Structure formats: C-alpha cells, structure tokens
Amino acid sequence: MDFLYTYETLKLEFPLVGPERARFVILGVPFDGTTSFKAGARFGPTLIRHATLNLESYVLDYDVDIAELPIADIGDVAVVAGDPRRTADRVRETIEELKRINPDALPVLLGGEHSQTLGAVEALKPASYVVFDAHLDLRESYEDNPYNHACVARRISELGVKEAMFGIRSGTREEVSYAQEKGIPWVHARDYSFDAFIELVKPLPEPVYLSVDIDVFDLSLVPSTGTPEAGGLGFWDVIKALEWLAENKKIAGFDIMEVAGENLGNPTSLTAAKLLFYFIGMMGV
Ligand SMILES: [Mn+2]
C-alpha cells in the first residue's frame, strides 16, 4: 500500500482487523482538485470517520452489531494535488493491491470528489454501475479536463459498464442526449420510486459497483457538498434501494462521495456516516 497516508486519529471507534482478513475495507480519498462550486471534499473522509463516533455500532433494523464484523480502515490515498487522473490511478492501484492480498475484500471508498470513483471501477471491473446522484456526470469534458468530477459516469460508460442512475435533477442537453444515445437509464428525483428503481436494476448484470454521491439527498440533509441541489431524495429512499441490491445482487464495491465542509459533525458527514453503518450492517446480515 505505497500510496497511503496513515492518519493516526479519527479511526472508527471499535477494534478493526487488518485488510488481509477484512470483509469490508475502508479507503479514504481526500481529493477535491476539480471542485467547481464548494470546496472541502478533501476533508470528506476525515469528516465521515469522525461522524461515526456519534453512532451506535448496533444497527437496529438488522439486529447487526457492525463492531463484530471484520472491518479494516487502510487510511487515505495520498492524492496528487489538482490531478484527478493520477489520483484515480492511485485509487486503482491501491484497490488492485488490496484484492491481491484479499480477493474477498469489499472496498468501501469515502470521498472526496466523485472523479475518484473511476479508479475503483477500473480496479474492480464490475459489469454494472448503479449510482445515486443529483447530476448525470456524463460530460465529455469539463473545464478542459475529461477526468473532472462532472465526467465520471461518461468515463465509466466508455469502459462498457452498464449504468443506471437515480435521483437525478441536473444535467445538460448534451448529457441527456448522450444517455439516450447509449441507452443509459436514469430516474429524475421527482419521479423516483422504489418500483422505478427495481425495474431498472433487476436486469443489470453482476457484479454491481454501487456509488452514492451524497448530493443525491435533499440538500437539507447534505448542505456541505461540492455542488448542492435542492429537491433530492430522502434517507430511507436510498436505504431501501441499497437493501434490495444487498439482498439480490453481488456487490463489487461501494462508495460515498462528495462529502465536504470544514466543521466536524456537520450534517452532511452525519448523513454519510449513518449511510456507511447501514450499508455495512445490511451487507453483514
Ligand atoms: Mn453529483
């Protein structure tokens, strides 16, 4: 793991195992080099880890205590300042190395800009990509950089990975045309329902990489994120969808991206930490 910082503080509160024995392996990506509106996603991993201190490790809904599950936290990738492609290469290499030492490990990325999801997808080579996001992220290029956060779903679709998107409420005419041309289905936040979700994800090939851009939630839940948008999904909408995937599809990897801000305990980090514990809990049932 050559590219990792090792933060000595702000780890999860309960005992963890090494990455070679873990089922869930947490990796932070503190990168915000192409953020276009609100900076601070570089603090996302630290904010989420800190916010977990507020949570019970016992997840009521599933009767699972995630403190009893084999979880590793391998720290943060050392980012290449301002370079989303080279940073994503480090994400990819770190996950490739992790899978070499532990093929059963499920990588869980905490970010950091959504641009970094590309590195995880390149490492894990899933058949499908299910994303919860306010934005289509299907631009060919943005601010002269094809690896900008606004292009990540486009780059992933070019890898031949099947995609489905939920909670969308922002995009350009060109992005909508690209989705139509490539047959990439997406559900607008105002039209979102569990039934609409099932209809699109049921036929997707496995394994599935699952990405939650935290801005999919209504901005009342997540005010500190790179590109906040009103009119988003509720917490339980997303949890219910993830539960279906956890039960019905093989999951290759998971991420929670675009958590930002500079104040420990901010609402965005609390939403993200709760989502993280629910995800581990439902996968650990
Ligand atoms: Mn987004």
Written description of the protein model:
- Belongs to the arginase family. Agmatinase subfamily.
- InterPro entries: Agmatinase-rel (IPR005925), Ureohydrolase (IPR006035), Ureohydrolase_dom_sf (IPR023696).
- The protein is α/β, with parallel strands linked by helices and about 280 residues long.
- The protein has one domain (about 5-285): Arginase, Chain A (3-Layer(aba) Sandwich), CATH 3.40.800.
- The protein has helices spanning about 45-50, 85-100, 115-125, 150-160, 175-180, 195-200, 235-250, 265-285, and strands at about 5, 25-30, 60, 65, 70-75, 105-110, 130, 160-170, 185-190, 210-215, 250-255.
- The strands form two sheets. The chain has a nine-stranded mixed beta sheet with strand order 1-5-2-6-11-10-7-8-9, with helices on both faces. A two-stranded antiparallel ribbon has the order 3-4.
- The chain is globular.
- The relative contact order is 0.19.
- Manganese (II) ion binds near residues 114, 133, 134, 213 and 215.
Primary descriptors:
binds manganese (II) ion; 9-stranded mixed β-sheet; 8 helices; alpha/beta; 32% helix; globular; Arginase, Chain A; 285 residues
